[in-house]
User: Which sequence fits this backbone?
């Protein structure tokens, strides 16, 4: 029983560690793993949460998330400007939320303020075996142009 708990904790730590570098590519953006656990009554799915801290004027690059990921974003503090797919850009304030369906593009995610920090809680429902939660579109286009 004790050994099973150790293996579960090690698996959770490994999954979070693998998710963090993929998500941390912005300027003035810090992504911190917060929670990860498989969903017992939905085999093959996990719940992963990350906290995204933006410095004043900080931003994430244009990106997509894992193809299986349904994402709920909740602004903890400050103001976050966000755009999903070709929808309108919108500023969300502390206490407001938005979501992204699987396969969505996230062209804009940034702190709306140049003088105050902002913090976002990102909640992912994702396939447990997903290796990368976030892929920068800017990185993809620059690597394609080199080939």
Assistant:
């Amino acid at each position: 029983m004790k050994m099973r708990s150790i293996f579960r904790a090690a698996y959770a730590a490994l999954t979070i560690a693998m998710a963090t570098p993929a998500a941390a590519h912005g300027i003035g953006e810090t992504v911190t793993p917060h929670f990860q656990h498989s969903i017992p009554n939905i085999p093959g799915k996990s719940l992963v949460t990350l906290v995204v801290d933006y410095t004043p004027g900080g931003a994430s690059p244009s990106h997509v998330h894992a193809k299986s990921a349904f994402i709920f974003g909740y602004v903890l503090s400050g103001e976050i400007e966000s755009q999903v797919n070709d929808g309108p850009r919108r500023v969300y304030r502390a206490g407001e939320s938005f979501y992204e369906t699987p396969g969505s593009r996230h062209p804009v995610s940034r702190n709306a303020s140049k003088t105050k920090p902002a913090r976002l809680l990102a909640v992912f429902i994702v396939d447990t075996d997903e290796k990368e939660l976030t892929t920068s579109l800017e990185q993809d286009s620059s690597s394609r142009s080199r080939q």
Residues 80 and 111 are 5 Å apart (CA to CA). Helices lie at 2-23, 137-146.
